[in-house]
Amino acid sequence: MVTRTVQEKLAILSDAAKYDASCASSGTSKRNSLDGKGLGSTEGSGICHAYAPDGRCISLLKILMTNFCIYDCSYCVNRVSSNVDRARFSVDEVVSLTIEFYRRNYIEGLFLSSGIIRSPDDTMLDMVRIVRKLRHEEGFKGYIHLKTIPDAAPELIEEAGRLSDRLSINVELPTDHAVAAYAPEKKPGQIREVMGRIRARKQAGKDKTHTGKRPPKFAPAGQSTQMIIGADGSNDATVLGQSTRLYSSYKLKRVYYSAFSPIPDASAKLPLIRPPLQREHRLYQADWLLRFYGFELGEITGVTADGNLDLEIDPKLAWALEHRGLFPLDVNTASREMLLRVPGFGVKTVQRIIGTRRTRTLRYEDLTRMGASLKKARAFITAVGWTPGGLTDSANLRARFAPPPEQLSLL
Amino acid sequence: MRRAAEMPRIGTAQAWRDAARALLSEGVPPGQVEWTIEGADQAPLFGGAGVPVRTAPVTVPRSFLGLAETVVWHDDPQRFAHLYAFLWRLRDAPRLMQDRADLGLARLRRMEKAVHRCQHKMKAFVRFREVPPHRTGRRAFMAWFEPTHHTVEPTSRFFQRRFADMDWSIVTPDVTAHCIDGAVSFQLDAPRPDLPEDAHEDLWTTYYSNIFNPARLKVSAMTSEMPKKYWKNLPEAALIPDLIAGAGKRAAEMARAAPTLPPLRVEAAQRQQQGFASDWGAKGETLEAELHQCTRCPLHGAATQAVPGEGPLDARVMIVGEQPGDCEDLEGRPFVGPAGRVFDAAAATAGLDRSTCYVTNAVKHFKYVVQRKRRIHDRPDRSEISACRWWLDGEIARTKPALIVAMGAVAAEALTGSGKDLLRRSGKLEATGDGIPVLITVHPSYVLRAMGQAAQEQARDMLERDLRLAASIQSEVCG
After folding, report:
1. What ipTM was predicted for this assembly?
2. Domain for residue A301, yes or no?
3. Do B329 and A249 count as a contact with CB atoms less than 8 A apart?
4. Is pLDDT of B257 > 90?
5. A61 to chain B nearest CA, in Å?
6. How many domains in chain A?
7. What's the rounded Cα separation, in Å, for the pair B99 and A197?
8. A254-259 sheet: strands from edge to edge
9. Interface mutation target, options B108, B112, B139, B212, chain A, most CBs of A under 10 Å
10. What are the chain A neighbours of B279 within 8 Å (beta carbons)?
11. Please, what is the average pLDDT of chain A?
12. Is there a contact between B170 and A104 (Cβ–Cβ < 8 Å)?
């Protein structure tokens, strides 16, 4: 095999890692190196150290340990049947890259993933070795996200959880059926079992033992997963149903939706279309409504006949347009639950409205200073000095928000 | 009398706080104070007296202090005056801090947000290069950075917490921070240093250009978070124009490229893959291993795993519940959650030793609905119960119990064909189709769901009464 320089390996193994959407580095325990032992800190909220022209944040050194893989997942650039260039980092190379990038303030830490080489246990062990060295020998206190190999031995996953901030296992596709079709070696049931075990282990880490001591923290930034959107035929109701189940079952911090994107040397099994970025965006919006705005799944996916989200308007607006009877709401008296359902109001805006209306009655102009998007909200609210009149029920309300119809290109 | 308050460029936050306290305690109205910055060209318009020595104590809402400590670092020369004017109003109306619609507060909050953003961008976009060390054994790094606001001093703590085992300097046209051996010092108007080349910058730009996905070009999302004003000091930013220009071509090439033939090593890799089909997941050709793969009804898709029964395979008594709950689903063992604890307590009181019984469920996968981010138990329907009979029958055939205790309507339905009228039937013996005696009783979760203490006691008594009967039958058959 050809010997590659670190730079060549880095090019191959970061290129291979870019289809993982997550780059989050927030929500972990606070740490610093003020005691002079080691390097690094975590501050609660993550930092995006750069942005790539695809609009994505670069917070971590996101690389594969190796892109050699014995699995044959059709959607994956690293599948065994692909002819992409292959490379493999040594333990020391990953450790050195992480530390040197960190010292220059390029990154918050490491997101390490890997193709499956030899066996799942061997692969996981090599990944754990890297993290072990970073933590124990280099005293690295920055953020570490480790992609867990579901097939690996439980002891290895246990050690991985104690050493890193976040563990993740990708469910890959929205249904077990789709996984069987496109990722034949992956077992969705086993992936769920590991996620269940991580949740149970995390919970056990919170209980004090009989001596009153707390066991060491286990994956303090929780676990996350990723689903590829648009590779199989699942509609948005199926996708969001899956994520609702994952959130409730395994207390995931995030489900990432990744619009299926063309890859170099693609498999003939999958369509090479432009990635459905708008759909991905709407799914994230719906995901937020489910988690932070008190919406139930059926409310979001029930407004369209085909179970797909409206691509032209956001899901909250789509819901509100179908439930105009509940509006307009008086911002001075409406409950928090209902205010959260007003299109154009975010969680912070609602907090500010409730805080301010304790001291005085709100006028329409006041809302402009509270972060509300009044262009959307005005049709659904009343305040001192404002009533929407017939606007709430006007027939062309949707047309005010939806983009004008696009003329189809002939070419 | 007019007052002139000159603010230093280092230690501004404390200086403003002291001055504001003193002015406020002496009752100097905002119109009478002229705030200036040390070293600025404009001399005070009016000579005026300096800031008075603080006399009386002043109380200020804590939330204002936090706001002021940030706003003082804003670039607006009027920031001190705005803060003091608001503080003046706050004396008589402390609740003003909660009024998000107040114009004065809204302006300060806007300035606070700008400073926070600038601090955040500084944490993100400072790029160190390695420089010769000040002393051996401790590496040294230096960066040139141009912040929008005066954020070096308030942000230096962040770098101190993070880079404690190295020396570093962040040089800016305004204030420069040095951290030598863990101690931070500030310097004004340091000249721009000539930083040596750093080999890791090439690795970083290699990473940057390869982590970018050309099929997802979204330039506006990038520039809104990484504004162009920062680009000149970011080594990776030089690549951006070329990456954008080439993106369309690269994406089109990927789409055009015909699928290639798989490389030769595929076959070997696949053989290898077959070889270790999970070391710890497989459990042989037992009933449990087969149950693990069960797809006889749709419940398997939402549950974590099938939960088989557990207990001695020659147990004389078999306990059958309804279905696994949240805890059982995660742990893969029956009756380990809240209902399991009720069962354990009732069995202990009744003198029935759980470890001598085979404990299982009528339905092996957890059926639930999600409400408010929680999984709420959902009763299995007839088709799911009958699909799972296959496994229950298998467990019965393997264990050959002398008595089966059916806890709850679902277990009763699975074993006797009917789940109706449970309370009337409980405590009585019926039989399975094959003639094995079935003792009907309530499910432990019935105790948990009963409203009020009296009802709960009653339900618990019923369960204990029936389990006592089971215990006595068990001792009979075991001789």
Report:
1. 0.94
2. no
3. yes
4. no
5. 8
6. 2
7. 47
8. A60-64, A109-113, A143-147, A166-168, A223-229, A254-259
9. B212
10. 119, 121, 151, 153
11. 91
12. no
